[in-house]
Specification:
Helix content is 31%, strand content 25%. The chain has 420 residues and is α+β, with helices and mostly antiparallel strands. The strands form 6 sheets. A 4-stranded mixed β-sheet has the order 21-22-1-23. The chain binds uridine-diphosphate-2(N-acetylglucosaminyl) butyric acid.
């Protein structure tokens, strides 16, 4: 784990063009999907981030070969599976690793996995995943902090998800594509990353319709084959740069993005007063110093993503009036509030609501990234804070943002990585 920190000198208006990488939360399920075939899978537009490295280690621990033929592609060959149980430390350090359980169940009819860890952002149960496996006919035994799922054969089923969990929907899809007969996932998550996974699986020979809506239909198949798949643009990285441009009063063109996945953010930031022009795969953001307070709710897609809730809070420290931010997905995702206060923000949290009064002049200080998105929010605040801000524990950001500091530097930000 790197002890690096970012040192930021605030006060620059960002200007220029920034390219958006492939989506962290889309590439991880696609990597797990590669386990479903004995043939090679080739992924393009793969971000160079820590979470991809973790997932590669997980796949390798199961016997897969993983290569990076180019900096932005991955070749995965799971012709032989040699283990059905990834090492606990990998699953504990990255939640998406738990997706290999659905893929192993689909491919081999069995798998064992530790209960997953991940960012400290609230309770993160896996009941939805396990109920889905059981509905497909698997025996699911949780024991000693691990869970085993096994089945002689999986059969299609109508599966109702108690909550439209993103990873839960993906895990159940990974198993259901290889079940005999038809499955219907009702109250499925509708995030674009789910549609991305379905595209990859359909490219491998699966029959999935409805992904990206709350009802997904899957006709099971007995075999899947090789595929070449391009990872969708990262809507959260793009949103982070929209906020970076807005908060610094900048003028930034964000390219290789997918604005149609970003309606909620675009609409909310326009309400705040930010000018955003939308192209087919680009966004042109023009900041202003006339920002207004708003009410924000972080909810499942197509609502404003919980992953952009903290970055938007940083922006609202500069808006005139009192803003309310309601986090409706996770129950503990406002821990960044105390760090923002160290920079001079007037923000308090009560339960799952943050209240921000603005505008306030922020001043540099030493703060700590608590998770990938909370860290991004502090970097954004550091860009406008007077003087020097040091953000520690930036390994969180390295897990999810490709070249964050280089991309910001290319827009004129004064930010440096310092090894401690
Ligand atoms: N939930 C349940 N039961 C379950 C699973 C989830 O009640 O079995 C509840 C959770 O307690 C939580 C809510 O469902 O309140 C949402 O959790 P979800 O399962 O949808 O989240 P996730 O799949 O674990 C993914 C992303 C997160 C993102 C959330 C919500 C990946 C690898 N992670 O997590 O991304 O915040 O969906 O959109 O796809 C990030 O990128 O920083 C990040 C945390």
């Amino acid at each position: 784990m790197s002890g690096d920190k970012f040192v930021i000198e605030g006060g620059q208006h960002l200007k220029g063009t920034v390219h958006i990488s492939g989506a962290k939360n889309a590439v991880l399920p696609c990597m797990a999907a590669s386990l479903l075939t004995a043939e090679e899978c080739y992924l393009e537009n793969v971000p160079n981030i820590g979470d991809v490295e973790y997932m590669a280690l997980v796949l390798q621990s199961l016997g897969a070969h993983v290569e990076r033929p180019t900096p932005s592609s991955l070749l995965i060959n799971a012709s032989t599976i040699t283990s059905y149980s990834p090492p606990s430390e990998l699953v504990l350090s990255q939640r998406a690793s738990f997706l290999v359980l659905g893929a192993l169940l689909g491919r081999a009819g069995r798998g064992t996995c530790s209960f997953p860890g991940g960012d400290v952002i609230g309770q993160r149960p896996i009941d939805v995943h396990l109920a889905g496996f059981a509905a497909l006919g698997a025996n699911v035994h949780p024991e000693d902090e691990k869970v085993t799922a096994e089945a002689e054969s999986l059969h299609g089923a109508r599966i109702f998800m108690d909550y439209p969990s993103v990873l839960g929907t993906e895990n159940v899809m990974l198993a259901a594509v290889m079940a005999q007969g038809r499955s219907v996932i009702v109250n499925a998550a509708a995030e674009p990353e789910i549609a991305g996974l379905a595209d990859m699986l359909n490219g491998m020979g699966a029959h999935i319709t409805g992904a990206g809506t709350h009802t997904i239909n899957i006709e099971g198949v007995s075999e899947l084959h090789s595929a070449r798949h391009t990872i969708i643009p990262d809507r959260i990285e793009a949103g982070t740069f929209v906020v970076a441009a807005a908060i610094t009063g900048g003028d930034v063109e964000i390219v290789d993005a997918e604005p149609s996945h970003m309606d909620a953010l675009i609409c909310k930031l326009r309400e705040v007063g930010v000018s955003i022009e939308v192209g087919e795969s680009s966004l042109h953001v023009l900041g202003t110093d006339d920002l207004h307070a708003v009410s924000v709710q972080a909810v499942p897609y197509p609502g404003l993503p919980t992953d952009l809730q903290a970055p938007v809070a940083s922006l609202l420290t500069q808006a005139q009036g009192v803003s309310y931010i309601h986090e409706r997905v996770f129950d503990n995702r406002l821990l960044y509030v105390s760090e923002l206060r160290k920079l001079g923000a007037e923000v308090v949290s009560t339960g799952t609501t943050a209240i921000v009064a603005g505008p306030r002049t922020l001043s540099g200080n030493n703060v700590r990234a608590l998770d990938v998105r909370a860290g991004a929010a502090l970097v954004l605040a550091g860009l406008i804070a007077r003087g020097r801000t040091e953000v520690s524990d930036i390994y969180h950001m390295d897990r999810g943002y490709e070249n964050l500091e280089n991309k910001l530097q290319s827009l004129g930000a004064i930010i440096e990585r310092v090894s401690t």
